[in-house]
Amino acid sequence: MTLDPAFRIIRLMAPIILPPLKAAGFDLIWFGMLMTIVMETGLIHPPVGLNLFVIKNIAPDISLRDIIWGVMPFVGLMLLSVVLICIFPGIATQLPDQVMGVVPAR
Fold it and tell me: Which of 31, 41, 79, 87 has the smallest CB count inside 10 Å?
């Protein structure tokens, strides 16, 4: 079973990054969502985007240039979502806050 490279990076870096972030008062759920979006953007962003080469091997008749231009709208949307999550952190934490804020009935 192969794991997503972004998952491997997050799993490797989390023990190093999270304690200082927690001490600085950052919301770890917000940071986890932000880190995941940024890592997945890196997988489809040229020049080193691993998923670009996977798509090229699946469809060898399509040029790499066409594949790169095809993923650019998604890269733009992911970067826009990163900006929005940084400006309005409540977007990323609204649902977890609602779920964790509910007191279970006894």
Answer: 87
